Amino acid sequence: MSPSPDAVAPPPVIVLVRPQLGENIGKAARAMLNFGLTRMRLVAPRDGWPNPAAGPAAAGADGVLADAEVFPTLAEAVADCSAVYATTVRKRGVTKPVVGPDEAARAIHALPAQSALVFGPERSGLETDDVALADAILTVPINPEFGSLNLAQAVILCAYEWSRHHGHGRSSLVQPTVEDILPPASQAELDGLIAQIEGLLEPAGYFRHTGRAVTSRRTLRAMLTKPGWNHLEVRTMRGVLSALGKGPRQG
Questions:
Q1: pTM for the whole thing?
Q2: 230 lies in a domain?
Q3: What are the Cα distances from residue 101, in Å, to 6, 133, 220?
Q4: How many Å apart are CA 114 and CA 112, to the nearest integer?
Q5: Is 244 helix (H, G, I), strand (E, B) or coil?
Q6: pLDDT tens digits for 201-248?
Q7: Which residues contact 148 (CB under 8 A, 6 or more apart)?
Q8: Closest CA to 119 of 104, 106, 110
Q9: End of a domain among 164, 196, 212?
């Protein structure tokens, strides 16, 4: 039965199984929050929880760490989840469907129930028993000579794909804020700049070779109009030329 069009799939929980370093937990939280995921679950973290090393590595994603839930086993951590994806590059002898981050993200958005993305310890990854609890294996095509993603990298790949499909196919990502782009300078402004430059070059003898004067002027105009200067850049250049035209300051 297809889900109701009004049903909204909740964001997946990120489950870190037996994470070893607080720094890596913090970096995973940072990766999550960059793409709108906030629910972290920790399974038997090696150094306990909370871990003072996690905060600095989270670089501001403190809310994710503060709300992180701790469970003694993976089974308890995913007990409320209807879909569980075990992230691993190895099947470890368990027969499961294998999907990529994009396919998993689409499936998560299509299911109006809680899902989980499960990540293993930094050194060894998920064990066979961990993978056995999942509905599918999530993996990415990777260099067969060097399949070594760190924990935060693996989290950010999956979080990015989930966010990319968020909002019924419309990306919820936004580009970083950039400065307003000024409109191109008018032809009159460019003509004024070119005339000023030529006025400074004339007494210096730049156009003294009559045979090349026309070509030199044409080349100069092409150079100055090619970049598509805005009016502020033209004003700045004219200020530079005015300063040069006045010569050295006295005293």
A1: 0.68
A2: yes
A3: 24, 19, 53
A4: 7
A5: helix
A6: 888 777 877 677 888 888 888 888 877 788 888 888 888 888 778 766
A7: none
A8: 104
A9: 164
